[in-house]
Specification:
This protein has about 210 residues and is of the alpha/beta class. Helices cover about 45% and strands about 10% of the residues. The protein is built from 9 helices and 5 strands. Strands 3-2-1-4-5 form a 5-stranded parallel β-sheet, with helices on both faces. The chain starts with 7 loop residues before the first helix and ends with a helix.
């Protein structure tokens, strides 16, 4: 089959149009429920950091506790003092219990007390953030919330498409060789370091 490269601006317009015209009301209702704090309060500063999780534990590249500790170490060193909102975006293939455990642990860490951490699993509908593509979430934030600052941790190559579609989003590299060597199993360290090198190289070309 022949394939044709689609212009990123065309994809962006499709996503924004999807949000604006409410083609999927259940999905929009879920996002409105998750982000309802912005409707309740007149908030002028909306500095939002999105952290997408991965499947290190599910693919046996680390244990669950090691994966969680790597996330926390990364976030502690990510200068989140300049943000007031944190969104955990679960990977669609990751365990719900793992992501809920991360969410609960983050809420108890004093360093993050200044952050409003969104619950990725609201008791609202069959939708959860793990089932909603990152591109759709960002389209909603850009269209409805109009965040003053929007940053996304680039934990996998999948995040590159989000940056390509929404160039105004700030991308923060993850995780770095020191954290990889500390928390990832030895057999997978070089593979992950190589993947992050490829991600960094592609991010450079997207600037």
């Amino acid at each position: 089959l022949n394939s044709k490269k689609i212009n990123s601006k065309f994809v962006r317009n499709i996503l924004i149009d999807h949000i604006r015209n409410k083609y999927d009301q259940d999905l929009l209702n879920t996002l409105e429920y998750i982000f309802n704090i912005f409707k309740k309060k007149n908030i002028s500063r909306k500095a939002l950091f999105i952290f997408p999780t991965t499947t290190f534990a599910e693919t046996k590249r680390s244990g669950i506790n090691e994966e969680i500790e790597m996330y926390i170490s990364y976030l502690k060193n990510s200068n989140l003092n300049s943000f007031n909102y944190l969104l955990i975006k679960p990977h669609p293939g990751s365990q719900i219990t793992k992501n809920k455990y991360l969410y609960e642990k983050l809420k108890k860490i004093n360093q993050f007390n200044h952050l409003h951490i969104f619950n990725p699993y609201p008791n609202y509908s069959n939708f959860c953030l793990g089932n909603i593509p990152l591109e759709i979430i960002c389209a909603y934030i850009i269209e409805h919330i109009r965040a003053t600052t929007l940053s996304v941790a680039c934990c996998s190559t999948a995040t590159l498409s989000t940056k390509n579609i929404f160039p105004e989003i700030n991308i923060k590299k993850a995780f770095g060789s020191s954290l990889i060597k500390k928390y990832i199993k030895k057999d997978f360290i070089n593979q992950r370091i190589k993947q992050e090198f490829i991600i960094e190289k592609n991010l450079f070309h997207l600037k």
